[in-house]
Amino acid sequence: MKLQVDHQFPSPTHQDQWEKLKQFTDARIALGRVGCSIPTKAFLEFQLAHAQARDAVYQSLDVTHLTEQLNKHNLEAVHVQSNAHDKETYLKRPDLGRQLSNSSQQYLQQQYNQNQLNYDLCIVVGDGLSARAIETNVIPFILSLTQEITDQSWQLAPIIIATGSRVALGDQVAEIFQAHMLVMLIGERPGLSSPDSMGIYYTLNASKSSVDANRNCISNIRPDGLSIQIATQRLVNLMKKSKQLGFSGVNLKDDHQITEIEQSSQTKLIF
Predict the structure, then answer these.
(1) 65-73: which pairs have CB atoms within 8 A and are 24 or more residues apart?
(2) How much is the pLDDT for 22?
(3) Could you write out the DSSP letters of every residue in 20-73?
(4) pTM of the model
(5) What average pLDDT score do residues 94-121 get?
(6) Packing angle between helix 63-72 and helix 131-152, nearest 10 degrees?
């Protein structure tokens, strides 16, 4: 029997015709293919992104470090807990994440009763679905916002760090402090290209009876998304406008024109 030479030819990676569009987005497009599958590099990057998203959800917020960073800038911070006392409960019972625990509610009420100041603004920092997003973005954002708060002569309540929190938990905090404006900073649900995305929810005259339609949302705040600078500009514009009109939410339109864009780094456009 005569043996035949087995010729092996390399299988080239076929490039997608959308290759040029990759420069504008972090979305997984134009991955190419090898045979009927995606290239190994793209597959491994997907697995890494999936692992990072899972880690972002299950990571615990470093409350001690966050408190120390705020105190360094002369900002008072108070830690509270929702009724979702562990991550499993938090994921399975969203309703418990919207409620302050009884001990936290009583503590905040005592704090307010001792001072009884007329607070213009209450900032609540919630871990949400990505503690990583908070640890990455919240300090530079709060420092940027407090400069605007000083310029507007707004009275700021103690900054609340809430673990096991959903967005609506901030309403209860603002009601206790009788704050005119509420800014809720929370870790957003991580995508496969954005495990560090922070969201802002702004509400005027927030209370436990507030609904989603009463809030304004600014999302995708992260190094490769919406910058701290632009997010601050948009939020302050909403706050000023809502105070003039007397409401926030779906009827309050974000018509802010960006006046200053940070050019230190070139970020991708998201579409």
Answers:
(1) 65/135, 66/125, 66/134, 66/135, 66/138, 66/139, 66/161, 67/161, 69/139, 70/139, 70/142, 70/159, 73/143, 73/146
(2) 78
(3) GGGGG--S-----BBTTB--HHHHHHHHHHHHHHHHHHHPPP-HHHHHHHHHHT
(4) 0.84
(5) 93
(6) 20
CA distance 227 to 144: 11
CA atoms of 66 and 145, how far apart (whole Å): 16
Q: Which residues in 96-122 are b (16+ Cβ under 10 Å) and which e?
A: bbbbbbeebbebbeebbeeeeeebbbb
The whole-number pLDDT of residue 259 equals: 60
pLDDT tens-digit readout, 178-206: 999 999 999 999 988 889 999 999 999 99
Whether 258 has a pLDDT exceeding 70, the answer reads: no
Summary mean pLDDT of the chain: 89
Q: How far apart are the first and last CA of the chain?
A: 62
Which candidate, 202, 198, 168, 196, places its Cα nearest to that of 94? 168
Separation of alpha carbons 22 and 9, rounded Å: 29
Place of tokens 């040029």: 20
pLDDT in the model for residue 172: 96
Confidence (pLDDT) at 271: 37
Residue 79's contacts (CB-CB under 8 Å, 6 or more residues apart) are: 63, 67, 160, 161, 162, 163
For the chain, strand residue ranges (E) read 77-81, 121-126, 159-163, 181-187, 198-204, 215-221
**Residues 93/155, Cβ–Cβ less than 8 Å:** no
